[in-house]
Amino acid sequence: MKKQPRLNFWQIWNVSFGFLGIQMGFALQGANVSRILSNLGADLHHLSLFWLAAPVMGLIVQPIVGGASDRTWNRLGRRGPYIFGGAIVAALAMFFLPNAGIAVYVMPALVFGALMFAIMDGSFNITMQPFRALVADMVPSEQRNLGYSVQSFLINTGAVLGSILPFVLTNVLGVANVAPDGEVPSSVVWSFYIGGGALLLSVIWTVFRTKEYAPKEYAEYKGLDLTKKKDPSEKGVMGFFRLLKQTPKTMLQLAIVQFFSWFALYLMWVYTTSAVAQHIWGCPISDTSSKAYQDAGNWVGILFAGYSLFAAIFSIFMSRIATKIGRKTVYSVSLLLGGLGFLSTLMFSGGDMIHLNLLITQVVVPSSAVYWLIPMVGVGIAWAAILAMPYAILSDSLPADKMGIFMGIFNFTIAGPQIVSGFVGGPILKEFFNGEAIYVLVLCGVCMILGAISVMFVKQAKAVN
């Protein structure tokens, strides 16, 4: 087996650069889809059901795309065709989602919006899954802490840019932030246009600036035998289930951590807008269109940008810290800080309206809105670790010739908790919390702490080929 060459920093950067645009799309989705669907008429207690489109699409798409990319090679490479194709469809869906009103003569705007959301998220997954495998393909084992940290940095930088777009367009460029009932504000519409364009351009950069290893070269670096015939039993549905039986123990142990982490993240994305509107701006539970609610929606963009910024900063140091004290320790402590961050949101509510100088403009917000940036430090650190540490831990335990399919299967540990969260989130909010969304964020904190404890039971494996 030939030793895989080390990459220089800019080669690692180019491999992951497309994550910048993809995460701009994910950030716009996370901060604004609940707002868009509410504007289109969705009930607060049913929002988590609409959001099920995201994990369901991931559950279906990622294993299929992962397995297909393991067997693909053409002039765009092995993973490149799927990354590029998914980005085109995702960008188109981002253009259509906030304009759901155009379909009113064909179907209800809310139905069209939910459909575009599903297509958009499915396309994100088509693009994202091969990206995960691409990093594992191109970056040698001894550089994976750095590789996944660069990836996390770009993801969170993209998230900052995507999260603040509606706020910047409203408060700096004066784009309208209020729309009639049943319509989406122009600030959100234009944010999705910009985000879709950035997604496509950044993915094009990675696809055409990264030269994937040809099959023979890849096999030499990974110790694979190209002359060995594929076992027919590995094909089809039954082959997939046989493959599941080979799932490394490390993946199963990480699945428990992933359950608590992604259960919490899903609830955060669905209910933070309502929590901020109710707990800080004092909006009634039924309010989904007032100026105060829209201002709260823009501030959620700032909060999400905040946790993404803190995540990006932590990502710069995470590789070195993990090398010194271990991946598991970094992962566990990060989730603990995230849990404490979520719990602390309960402390900050209401307050006098204050003038806040932000960027190149001045906004008026309740004083507690500023204090909510403190919990976002912990949430950001947890988010950075969630994006990098599970994959760094897992990649060493996966066989190189099945990297894509196993990375796709690992997505079950992301999609599954979100599906559970989608079904139980609304009933929990209604029956236990009386519609007060702030307590959903407290529940997120408890889940993150349980995830931190679960990390201790993960056993890391030595790298396999």
From TrEMBL:
PROSITE patterns: MFS. Residues 250-465 form the Major facilitator superfamily (MFS) profile domain. SUPFAM superfamilies: MFS general substrate transporter (SSF103473). GO terms for molecular function: transmembrane transporter activity. It comes from the Bacteria. The chain crosses the membrane at residues 12-29, 49-68, 80-97, 103-124, 153-176, 188-208, 251-271, 299-318, 330-349, 369-393, 405-425, 437-458. One of its GO terms (cellular component) is membrane. This is Maltose/moltooligosaccharide transporter. PANTHER family: SOLUTE CARRIER FAMILY 45 MEMBER 3 ISOFORM X1, SUGAR TRANSPORTER. Its main location: membrane. Keywords: Membrane, Transmembrane, Transmembrane helix, Transport. It is a multi-pass membrane protein. The lineage of its organism: Bacteria, Pseudomonadati, Bacteroidota, Bacteroidia, Marinilabiliales. It is found in: Membrane. Pfam families: MFS_2 (PF13347). Gene3D superfamilies: MFS general substrate transporter like domains (1.20.1250.20). InterPro entries: MFS_dom, MFS_trans_sf.
